[in-house]
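Justification of computing resources. Each target in the renewal requires a structure prediction run like the one illustrated here; the chain below, 367 residues long, is used simply to show the kind of job we budget for.
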Amino acid sequence: MTAATTAPGRAELLDRADRSGWAPIDLSLGNAGDRAPVEGSADLGGYPLCRGSEELRHAVAAMFRRDLDLLVDAGDVAACAGVKEFIATTPLLLRGREPRDTVLVPQLAYPPYRHGVRLAGLVEHAVPTGPDGRMDLAAVPEEVAARALMLWVTSPGNPTGVVEDLRAVVAWGRARGVPVFVDEAYVDLVWSGEPGSVLRYGPDGVVAVQSLSKSFGHPGARLGWFAGDPGIVAQLVAARRETGLIASAPSQAHAVAVLTAGAAARAQRRELVGARLGDLVSALRDNGIGCPDPPGGMFAWVAAPDGDGDAFARRLATGAGIVAAPGSGFGDAGRGHVRLAAVAAPGRVAARMARCQSLSDSVEVLR
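Resulting structure tokens:
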């Protein structure tokens, strides 16, 4: 009986062809390069690289050095179609490490974390929030940690803006063989302390994911990147290639342009978000709605005056035309809150907040 062999991958065959002494002729893909020309259209005849173009990966590595004072190897960087896509698909692509069938997520979490667990058919375990608002990993039973496939962390957090002690989080994960994935969509939007990536503590067992959306203000590009542990990055790139999870060529090219434009535009964006967030918090307080100073991020996490976040969101929309995100959407622990994003011009928000004093004192709940 002939032993089964592993089929050679396309990368291996391309490498062999490169070393053959002949100019390679690639007939491995149905690459529709002989397309009918369309006036004014971009040249999109070739498939983009799943890992990301060399230009993009080097631009990301340069950004890490310039903006975050980190040396990251471009070979350990890969592209994704935004952070949300990466969050929702990674548990599915990582599953198979028996007996690890559990994904650890924050008790208050961006909804795609939970959607991704369900999509993968895995078990969700919510990590409780401690008195300081951070994840309380000491409360995770060791028998649960032994079954954990991965740990999701957001820092600064969404919806609360909490900045996690990433050194302690990484140490916890490494001690238990649990890969730590940190959503760094708001990495430079830190208002208490210095901004910094989890990769400060080394890449072993760690992956950071970032994007053009929040820090750079280009959400329509649907382009992000992940970097860290070389083995994990390579595993995900291979799985993502087979499932067609590839950032488009135009979005990759756009990202290169944004990332190489320099730090000034990013700093300007950070200043704008900080000013809007400060004005939003002030407007809330001036009109009788308590709100703590967010330690990071671009959101105000507001306790509903009557303890019912869903009802308060309805009152804000009906009485003041302000659309908030009900805290219940981030988990049961958020039911008494609403999340307000610092995305509108300060004067416009403040004018509407004058309505909120009467709303907070109102007995009637508009449903």
